Every structure is written in structure tokens, then in C-alpha cells.
Amino acid sequence: VNILAIESSCDETSAAIISNGKILNNIVATQSVHEKYGGVVPELASRAHQQHLIPVIHEAIESSGIPKDQLHAVAVTLGPGLMGSLMVGVSFAKAFAFSLDIPLIAVNHMEAHILAHFIDDPKPKFPFICLTVSGGHTQLVLVKSHLDMEVIGETLDDAVGEAFDKTAKLLGLPYPGGPLIDKHAKQGNPKAYQFPISDMPGLTFSFSGIKTAILYFLRDNLKHDDDFISKHIDDICASVQYTLIQTLMQKLKKASKTYGIKEIAVAGGVSANSGLRSELELLAKKHHWNVYIPKFEYCTDNAAMIAMAAHYKFAKGAFVGLDISPEARMKIG
Ligand code: ATP
Ligand code: MG
Ligand code: FE
């Protein structure tokens, strides 16, 4: 079974081919137009998807060596994401499925981030808990099987990736700032400054408080010293990162304890963070967890994870009609 998968939910245009459950390639075009705006501009994102989509799909098909007439299905991200961006991928996928007379598979982007764990070994064992940390989401998901997942905790406001990116913006760093904060944090002292660790009930996250705390902290210090940021950027980044990671780890520990599960997976772009990775290693030793983090290229947005989800859906015959529409706020389950 050969499936073409397409991802266009945010600012990455991607296509991948999966053949009998094996990912053959994963072509990703990242949009750089957003850098100077400090965030993704939806209108520019959909236009860039229109420019990138055909070349990216062409490259995926060409490099796979599988001719178009040997594709058995087309899979596409239906949501959640930016409506205009989703529309580009979904419209193309429908037309492509129609023209080749093959079935269409609709994939939930957040489920796919989790299923990225099944691309390579070692794979987590069911049931496992997945902490999904990305630009738009912060979720704890109880994963019972490939296609049976339940959100057991999420953020009330900002996602943790957003907290990284907004902090970076306050520090004058370009978008997406998460990786740059990580870079500075490696040279700084995580205990240099203290920011509040939010204390929400149960498994709920909140990141708006820390964002405001950082804003006031910078404003107060800049009053006395114009160069405060440039002088202390490493310590500021290390302290902010420490706070964000501690906030995540507190809830992850709570989830593991509540459900009695020691199989712990992490998904989404923020799982690239080096502070998060080293903290997870420590917790794994301390609590005897098995921790799983996908390869970096499968952590950020990519079509390989959409292809993986499609592989399981194809096996179940979970196809959709050509009358489906993108769902900007699509939920897991
Ligand atoms: P969603 O999946 O919720 O729709 P998204 O697809 O935009 O959102 P991803 O592509 O999974 O999110 O991840 C992008 C996010 O990951 C950005 O917020 C980026 O700053 C963050 N990120 C990437 N690398 C790092 C890092 N090393 N440290 C911290 N954050 C990082
Ligand atoms: Mg992205
Ligand atoms: Fe994503």
C-alpha cells in the first residue's frame, strides 16, 4: 500500500510517501516570510503554501520512485490549524484523489504529532502518556492505541511554544524564537531570575501569567539599564526556559502518577528543547520512566507523521468523502 500524505496546517508545506508502513521520504518547505513579523501571518502562510505545494508533492513522488498510478490513497491534515493554510492542502488532496480515483484520508494534526513515535524504533507501548508541546498546543494525551486517544490535560490559554516565541519577541529575537532561547539558555544560569510557576488545578496548564511576568520584569529592568537585555540575555533565557520546563514537568509527573503509567512520550516542536530533554532524562532515572522523543525532523510539522496516521487509518478503511471541509479547531478523538 502506497500513500501520499500532505501537511499544510501552519507554516510548513510538506509531503511524504509511505509504503507498507515505511516512510520513504519527508519533503518540507519552511516559510521564512514570517520571521520579520514575530509570528505566522495567516494570509502570507496560505499564499506560500500555494507556491510550495506542487513542487513539494512533485519532489516526494519523484524521489519515492513510485509512479502516481501506484498510489492507493491520499492523506491530508484536516485540522487543527489556520483555515486558509488547511484549505490549500485539503483542496489539492481532494482534487488529486478525484483525478486518480483513489480514496481520501483525513488526519488530525495533533494525533499525527503523537503517531510520529511509530515512524522509528523504539516505539512506546500502549497505554502511554504523550506530552504534546508545540507552537499552538500544550496537551497531555492518554494514548490507548494508534487511533484511540484521550486528552487528559491542556492549556487554558497560550501554548508553551507560544510562550517561548513571545518571550523571544520581547527580547528582540526573530520568529520562531524557541530555538534561539534554547541556544542562549545553554550559556546562562537557570536560577539567575525567578518567574512564577503556574499552579493550575489537575492537569491544566496556563502560560499567560509567566508571559506577563516576563514583560514586567523586562520593563522594570530596562528603566534602569537600556542594555539590560543584551547584557543578560543568556541568564534571562536560561531562567525563562527553566520555568517553562518545570511547569511542564510538574504536570507530567502528576499525570504519570494519576494514571500509573511510566511509558512517557513527548511530541511537537518544543520537544527539540535541550533543557526539556535533559530534565526528562533525569525524571526517567528517578521515576523509572521509559521516555520517547522522535527524531527532530519528526517533531516539528512534517508530512511523515501524517503518512503514519494515514497508514493506520487505511488499514481500518477510515476514508472520507470529497465533501469534507478543513476544521480549524478539530479536536482529538
Ligand atoms: P501546532 O502543532 O500546535 O499546530 P506548530 O505546528 O506551529 O503548532 P510545531 O511546528 O510542532 O508547532 O513546533 C513549533 C514550535 O516549537 C515553535 O513555537 C518553536 O519556537 C518551538 N521550538 C522549536 N525548537 C525549539 C527549541 N529548541 N526550544 C524551544 N522551543 C522550540
Ligand atoms: Mg511550524
Ligand atoms: Fe504542529
UniProtKB/TrEMBL annotation:
CDD domains reported in the protein's UniProt record: ASKHA_NBD_TsaD_bac
Enumerate the spans annotated as Gcp-like domain: 22-307
Details of cofactor binding: Binds 1 Fe(2+) ion per subunit.
Sorted UniProt keywords: Acyltransferase, Cytoplasm, Iron, Metal-binding, Transferase, tRNA processing
Which cofactors must be present for this protein to function?
A: Fe(2+)
Residues binding Fe cation: 109, 113, 301
Compartments reported by the entry: Cytoplasm
Tell me the enzyme class.
transferase
Please give the InterPro entries that the UniProt record associates with this protein: ATPase_NBD, Gcp-like_dom, KAE1/TsaD, Peptidase_M22_CS, TsaD
One GO molecular function term of this record is: tRNA N(6)-L-threonylcarbamoyladenine synthase activity
Can you tell me which residues the record assigns to a coiled coil?
none
Its recorded reaction(s) are: L-threonylcarbamoyladenylate + adenosine(37) in tRNA = N(6)-L-threonylcarbamoyladenosine(37) in tRNA + AMP + H(+)
What's this protein's function? Required for the formation of a threonylcarbamoyl group on adenosine at position 37 (t(6)A37) in tRNAs that read codons beginning with adenine. Is involved in the transfer of the threonylcarbamoyl moiety of threonylcarbamoyl-AMP (TC-AMP) to the N6 group of A37, together with TsaE and TsaB. TsaD likely plays a direct catalytic role in this reaction.
Belongs to which family?
A: Belongs to the KAE1 / TsaD family.
Q: Report the protein name in the record.
A: tRNA N6-adenosine threonylcarbamoyltransferase
In its UniProt entry, the species of origin is given as Belliella filtrata
